[in-house]
Every structure is written in C-alpha cells, then in structure tokens.
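Recap quiz, item 2
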Amino acid sequence: MTQSERLDRTFAALTDPTRRAILARLERDKDGASVSDLARPHAIKLPAVMKHLDILDEAGLITRTKTGRTVTVRLSPKPMREAMEWLRRYERFWSGSLDRLTLYAETKEAEARKGGK
Amino acid sequence: MTQSERLDRTFAALTDPTRRAILARLERDKDGASVSDLARPHAIKLPAVMKHLDILDEAGLITRTKTGRTVTVRLSPKPMREAMEWLRRYERFWSGSLDRLTLYAETKEAEARKGGK
C-alpha cells in the first residue's frame, strides 16, 4: 500500500464523530477498552459499533485482542502520525499569518514611539 | 456548524489523492493558481476537477476569486489547523513510545556497565 492509499484510509476513518469519539476514549484508556465499554456512550446498536471498529481496524488505528469471550480494543495511533505529518506542511501558513501580524503590530508601535505619542 | 461537523467535512475533503495534490500545489503557489493550472497534472476531465474544487471550497479549504474570465484558486488552510489540533493529542503516544524505548536502552546500557561487560 502506498503512502497516499494509507492517507486515504486514515482520513476516511476519521470522517465520523463516533469513530473519533472511540479513538478519543482509547486515548484516555491506556489498557484498552472492551467493545461494550466503547459502545455504551453511543446511541447506536452494537452491530453499528462493530462496523465502526472494523473501519478503524482496517485503517490500522486500533488493535483487537480476544481473551476468552472479551475483546480488548487498543489504540494504534501510528497512521495518525503520518496524517499529522501531511498536515504539518500547512502549519507555516497560519504561523506565517501570525508572523505578519506581529510585524504589523511592531511597526505600528515603532511608528507611535517615533511620533512621540 | 459545530467543531465536530467541521472536522467531518475537513477529513472528508482530505480523503482523496487529487484533492490533496491540489492543496499541495496551492501550498507552493502563494499567489494562487487558475483552474486549468490545477487541472493540468491530473488525468481527469475539467468537470471532475471542478467537483473536487467544490468539495474543497465547501470545506473552507480554498477560496475562488473571479477576475474577468479567470478564476484564481487560493489555499485557505485554517480548517486544517483544527484537524491538526485534533490529531495532536495522539502525539504523546508515539513520543511516549520513543521515551519508553530510550529508557529501555538506557537501563540495558546501565545493566551492562554494572556487569562489567
């Protein structure tokens, strides 16, 4: 799979509030969570939760470990790192605007000082 | 629109290699690009490019300015900042793993030194 295909899959997996909430929950629970724990806060049926978990699993964002009858779901955030690296190159745009704003403020300040105001 | 809805839209807009390539191109061209400039590198027809631009526009990731018959497309990266902030909270996971790896290596090294090896 190419990097572009991985990004397609990662961004697609993140395009859903329930899936993002599941990831946020797993971010807090270092030891992982059971499927029913993950389903509880959501007003959706278990099969719908399972489908979301399948999508997250295919995107490599979670791992599922079965012990007896319990499935433990854990976060596997590596694909998010690649997505973040992709987004990072745009960072200079907003930091750039901030730099320009700072420069503007400093110039105004210098002008005001020169004018003795 | 809620932050969650904005994230849905931003991540959905990023779920396509052509759209990501258009954004990457606009990231390089500070003065923007015409629609035909943007279409050129892609083996897709102009209406398909226009559709991608509509999706990017609806997600607030580009602006389009018409001057005479030319439409200039510019990057509007603010929604990406929000997406990156969302991803950033997972950063501690990979930096955390690295810290644990460093700690492990240092412990092993200290043990080796103690053992006089």
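The mean pLDDT of chain B is 87.
The radius of gyration of chain B is 22 Å.
End of item.
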